[in-house]
Amino acid sequence: MIGLFTKTKEEHSSFMSSIEGFFMVGIASAYFLFPAFFQADDPDAWLRVYLLLATLVGLAFLLLLFSRVGVQGARARRSQPEGRLRRHAAADCTAAGDLFRAQRLPVRDGRTGAS
User: Fold this and answer.
1) What average pLDDT does the segment 51-70 reach?
2) CA neighbor of 33 nearest in space, from 53, 19, 60
3) How confident is the model at residue 4 (pLDDT cuts 50, 70, 90)?
4) Partners of 42 in the beta sheet?
5) CA distance 22 to 16
6) Secondary structure (3-state) at 42
7) What region, left, alpha or beta, does residue 103 occupy, with left being phi > 0 and alpha being psi -120 to 50 degrees?
């Protein structure tokens, strides 16, 4: 899905870095969020934080559900060759196939010549 929003490898890397950074903010905020729901007289009060988290997930789902995403442009870009990755894809597949075929060959002991 990130490829729908980025056009170059640099933009892709930058966007991924931003997503990972925002994820770390979420991880760090958990150390403050869970204790904020703690109450001394109700030992299960902290469990209500999951209602908040479920609401946030639901809002994110609705935002994604009603967002217009230009898939057609991404499909057109995908059909165009992109440098080394597209040029050597067939050669890479052949090399991977050779590797798997080599794994089926018997191993020979170099000292005795026996299999």
Assistant:
1) 90
2) 53
3) confident
4) 39
5) 10
6) strand
7) alpha
Per the document, the length of the chain is 115
Q: Per residue in 36-55, pLDDT tens?
A: 999 999 989 989 999 999 99
Could you tell me which residues come within 8 angstroms of residue 15 by beta carbon, excluding any fewer than 6 positions away?
2, 5, 6
Fill in the amino acid letter for 114. A
Cut 0.90: pTM above it: no
To the nearest 5 percent, what fractions of the chain are helix, strand and coil?
Answer: 70, 0, 30
17 versus 103: which is more confidently predicted?
17
Ranges assigned E (strand) in 1-115: none
Residue closest to 75 by CA, chosen among 2, 3, 13: 3
